[in-house]
Amino acid sequence: MPGKVSLAANQYYAHPRNYFWRMMEAVFGVDANLPYEQRCQQLLESRVALWDVLKTCTRSSSLDSDIVSSSIIPNDFQHFLHAHPDIQTIYFNGAKAEQVFCSHVLPTLSDDQALIQLYRLPSTSPANASVGWTQKLQQWQAITR
Q1: How many domains does the chain have?
Q2: Which residue segment(s) compose the domain that 15 sits in?
Q3: How far apart are the C-alpha atoms of 42 and 68, rounded to whole Å?
Q4: Residue 19: which CATH number?
Q5: With b meaning 16 or more CB within 10 Å and e meaning fewer, what string describes 89-103?
Q6: Nearest-CA neighbor of 19 among 135, 126, 113, 142?
Q7: CA distances from 44 to 10, 23, 57, 142, 143 (A)
């Protein structure tokens, strides 16, 4: 779920200390300084879909650890994956996204959809300071392999 800064900007990863767009520049060549709509278009041209696991939730801060479990409503991946049957892998930006997907989305998928590879990447959030940029970049480059 986007943090407060991203929700206010109506943009994914709008917090200036989040490394997501810098990571997309390093991995796919998406210019992190372009306007948001152009960055998103470049991701699509790189065959990358960007979507939250959660449609909505309640939390007191921007931290994933503050998400109230009983408030979780996931996005409709079943229909999304049906509309995009060529998707082979879903990459998660951090452990919480993977955990929520596995507990709230995976049980709703068809047998074929449930065979899609799942791959957790280190979070690009500034809250994930224990993993350095170089290590994050090495792991995120798995997307292009």
Answers
A1: 1
A2: 4-144
A3: 34
A4: 3.40.470.10
A5: ebbbbbebbbebbee
A6: 126
A7: 18, 15, 26, 18, 14
Integer Cα distance of 87 and 102 in angstroms: 17
Phi, psi of 8, deg, nearest 5: -65, -35
The answer to whether 89 touches 118, Cβ cutoff 8 Å, is yes
Q: What is the pTM of this model?
A: 0.87
CA angle in degrees (0–180, nearest 5) for 64-130-67:
5
Contacts of residue 41, defined as CB under 8 A and 6 or more positions apart, other chains included, come to none
| Token duo for residue 43 | 């991701």
Q: 32-74, pLDDT tens digit by residue? A: 999 999 999 999 999 999 998 888 655 666 556 555 567 778 9
Residue whose token pair is 């991701």: 43
Contacts of 112 (CB under 8 A, 6+ apart): none
DSSP SS3 for 89: strand
